[in-house]
Amino acid sequence: MKCAKQYQMAAPLQIGRMTVKNRIIFPPMNTNLTSEEGYVTPELEEYYVRRARGGVGMIVLEASTIDASSRNHPRQPLLYDRRHVAGWARLVERLHRYDVRVSVELVHYGSEASIPPRESPSGISKYKDDPGSILTKERIRQIQRQFAYSARLAKQAGMDCITLHACHGYLLAEFLSPVFNQRTDEYGGSFENRCRFLMETIDLCRKEVGPVFPIIVRFSADEFIEGGRGMEESVELAKALETRGVDAIDISAGQPSAYLMTTPPYCLPQGRKLLVPYSAAIKKAVKVPVFTAIGIREPEEVEEILKEGMADMVSLGRPQLADPDYVNKVLSGKGDTIRHCLSCEFCLDTLDDDRHICCAVNPETGREQEFHKITPAETKKRVVVVGGGPAGMEAARVSKLRGHEVILVEKSGELGGTLNAAKVPPHKDRIGRLVEWYRREIRELGIEVRLNTEITEENLDELKPDAAILAAGAHYIKRIPGSDGPIVINAIQALTNPEQVGKRIVIVGGGSAGAEVADYFSGAGISLSVKGADKPGGKVLYQEEKVAEPSDRDITIVEMLPSICSDVDVFCKDLVLTTLKVNGVKMNPGCRVDEINDRGVRAFQMEQQKELFFPADTVILAGGLRCNYENGFADKDYPVIRVGDAIRAGKIKDAVYTAYYKAMEI
């Protein structure tokens, strides 16, 4: 086991005259935890304090606007007036107790603000119907003064440095971009002119904060849009920023029309360690510290990046949503106990719906004030958990941490439940890591596990529980005529026993489960990478790469709803559909399945009012779930608490969340 000093990430770093205790950053991510007026709330405080307790070296507080009219979120953090200082100061003081250095990301959202009004260099925006006004030179100077005043307020609030938000297509980034900046005056055209707005802003900030207060600039090393900035110009920009007196370079990627490159989903292999080549190139060109980010998950990856000199600091955002103790675990030699991020995009999905930040595998994220610690129960009880899937494992874990005697009963020969099938499709290996984490937690907590044991009304009573948690999952409904026929299996059976699947496959159900089954059996011979958006507000362009021999299977998805992948989040849907298409999967939305026989599937295309027949060797049911033990265990003299799919069929986050909250109540 390494001691902390042997880890590259444990080494301190000098940024100007500021010393950071280690090489890990918790980067700025919107939370929707401020008040509607943009003030720091107790919820926001506890969210950041929890990450500070986890051992991170530096926290960059989420994007805070320097202008009252520039907002990207309903609960937008603000830092443009003296009345905002007290809340930020209180938060910073608490973070400093953990020897954490604190920055704040100062932003103007320009023409890409999701909430009008908008303003920009040239009136170019993904919001074509309302791109906003074009900035006059007078307004440019006013905004630059606003940035500088906000920098002054940040220092006044006790921040250790500031970060200027010049990425993701927002105002500072728009001026840098040859796509968004079409001006013909001194603020547009040449590279030097496009940099002018940012450079002048830096100069004004420097006057306000003084010569030794660190200024960091965060910019997109690649905009991922046709005609946009890429690596070559980003290296030149980093050199220009260093010459201007910037103390560190923090790189990100993308702009709103290719946002999946800012936070790549699991189904985009290109997103893993996305920016490491960019940070390595920039680091060779400058002497100031360079931060890298995006798609870095494993401690071994962090160590390699730092050891090989590809960056000076590493941002771990979503990994510290999943496990805020990431850094402490690594530095104490317990990196194998990290609860890893799935890259499932649930955290983004909630924000896109104007809810507060969440994490699919960590129910405490965003709720730290309510659940800052799992506390012992007032009365120790004997708790029997029925089902060893994600809900059952989480319920058992939390119940044990509450001090209860726990028995976890699973009818199969291994823990994991449906996760054992969910980890099989391409790029879903991180679900396997979650299963490993739960098994390790259950083992180390000393929870009694009984495998190959099916619970009945009678033998549950024999276990003499004070409370039972029903986490027995769900089953596929066979309501279609012929769905119990010899060529029919369900998605879980298909993924865990692929040898049962023939050459001609018809998948009944085109949601996420059906899509993942199709992706797996297609062989995923062609992989996609993102080239970028074709224009602001345009479509994402993909590059195809043959990575394996094509499958000889003929695969058809049949879905009653008018679209395939209707339950897949907006960040993944187009990528998933395109992947299926290029790998030869035939998709048939708007089709009602009327019958399954031993030759295939008879369906009815509702829009065209046309009968169809899809020949099949194997029909896979991938939709329509019903709770197991739906009406069972109702008349017990002890509470029987349903969690996960035993309430209603859902996703991993539904299983984990319901299990956590219910177990906290026992």
Key traits:
666 residues, alpha/beta, TIM Barrel, Rossmann fold, eight-stranded parallel barrel, 30% helix
- CATH homologous superfamily heading of the largest domain: Aldolase class I
Shape: globular
The separation of the N and C termini measures 38 Å
CATH fold topology of the largest domain: TIM Barrel
CATH class of the largest domain, named: Alpha Beta
CATH architecture of the largest domain: Alpha-Beta Barrel
The overall pLDDT average reads 96
Tally of DSSP β-strands: 29
Largest sheet, described in full?
8 strands, parallel, barrel
The DSSP helix count reads 19
User: How many domains, in number, for the residues?
Assistant: 3
Structural classification: alpha/beta
**Multimeric state:** single chain
Poorly predicted runs: none
The gyration radius over C-alpha positions equals 27 Å
Residue fraction in strands: 15-25%
Strand order of the largest sheet: 3-4-5-8-9-10-11-12
Helix content range: 25-40%
